[in-house]
Specification:
This protein is α/β, with parallel strands linked by helices. Helices cover 56% and strands 6% of the residues. A 5-stranded parallel β-sheet has the order 2-3-4-1-5, sandwiched between helices. The two termini are 48 Å apart.
Length: 389
Amino acid sequence: MTTDGGAAGATAGPGHPGTTSVAEGDRPAPALFDAVVGQEAAVAQLRASARRPVHAYLLVGPPGVGQEALVRGFAAAVLCPHGGCGVCSTCRRTLAGVHPDLVEVHRSGAALSVADARRVVSLAQRRPLEGRRQVVVVTDLHLARLAAPVLLKTLEEPAGDTVFVLSADLVPPELVTVASRCVRVDLQPVAPDVLARWLVTEGVDIARAREMAIAAGGSVDRARLLVDDEDFGARRRLWREVPARLDGTGATAASLAAELLGSAEQAVEPLRARHGAEMQALMAQAEATGERGVPGRKDIEDRHNREERRWRADEIKAGLGVLAGAYRDRLVAEVTGARVSGPVRVGERVQELSAAVGYVEGVCVEMIRNPNESLMLEALLVRLSAVTG
Ligand SMILES: [Zn+2]
């Protein structure tokens, strides 16, 4: 959430019906981290740390792998007057992201600015509103080159009642010093079988869960959105059919590229709907509290746009994975069916299909550096047109 002073999230707390009356020692671990998928090492580290937290933690790992759920579970353990019981009002509000002593600072532009860092500093100087401590969360630390000196000062002279949780996709050289002032917690992409098992518990049938888990590329956020995405299967079929539909003409390549890009655009719809609902909820909240508008609305909209762009790019990458798989399957079929065409022809075909797989995988890698996926996709399909179905 962009709003300082309470992270009004959409996900509800787990509502765990546990008990606090069991004697210390045989009490089961409270359900603070139930919303985290995988990340056992990070959960264990944070759970242990919460008993006597240091002043700053840095979560390092790819986006969408459970950062929010980890932060909320950890914050509940830190803020709860009973050490993280999982059932009290503090725990429940923290897990739902609506506790006033859990505050999040998101960058207001393309990078964390000096102004953003100053907001962090002033929050750190504030007294906790309810309990003995507050948790200040700062996301996208890898984009904090300019803000780093200001943040560093706060991290070096921490106020006693603030616990920082910073998160970053990676630690670039200019942030090594900031990172060195924090306890580092490493997060991993979630393995496909772990994601698939989780999707099954969410009611997805096993075959579809396996497909989705691969398409999610290690991201729980992406997997979660695919569950509500009715067109997921149709989009994968579209990518799989590309080799059969290419007919050697540039016109077909161009129209197929347009179709694939259109489908990637459509794939963003569930995320857009979720963003729309989030904004509606914030507007209703603002109205209820007599505010004239949603505080930080521009920041929230910028974040939504960024997430939607990234989602679209991820969708194309997942599609390219399906396309490479389609050529690989043809390659295998060609090799195993050699008796039909004879060895000479097979040799050429195998080379051609191997090259096709290579082209597709090459574009996947290139997409990380080059944001113009439309041009790259069209160029790829023109190239693949030479490889006959
Ligand atoms: Zn509690």
